[in-house]
Amino acid sequence: MKKASCGIILALISFVVLAGPGFAADSGAQENEAPPKDMAEAMDAMSGSLKLLRRLDRDPDRWTKNAAMVAKGSSVVIAAMRMIPQKIQDLPDGPAKLKALADSRRLMGLTLAGYGRLELAFLAESEEQVEDALDFLKEIKAESHEKYNRRE
Predict the structure, then answer these.
(1) Most buried by CB count within 10 Å: which residue of 16, 17, 67, 114?
(2) How does pLDDT run across 141-151, given as a tens digit for each residue?
(3) pLDDT level of residue 9 (50, 70, 90 thresholds)
(4) What's the domain count of the chain?
């Protein structure tokens, strides 16, 4: 994987405020780890799956292993879709809050689509597709953090 990919992956580590339990890819088996209790823990779970991507750069089975790590991150995104960013929770009830909730769901859906796209790129063993998928996720990350970053 190119150095730029590693930089993008590191940027994705702080991606979206997420929450939810992680599940093993395709096995349907729940991991032994306790599910995250809040969005910060869920971000860490997702970041763990993405951190492994750069560690597998020289592994002969890296394509398959990377796809599995992305699938693991996808399961956290799926679970996090039930969560509401704190910035939205703090809004008073009304049209602005409803609009923010809808936009948050849109961004989470795009995030899940990006993870699916990245997983497919690894399964296709296409460096170009991986780069495109990472660029897409980086754009979603930037928009999400601009609107809903928990550190603001």
Answers:
(1) 16
(2) 888 878 876 55
(3) very low
(4) 1
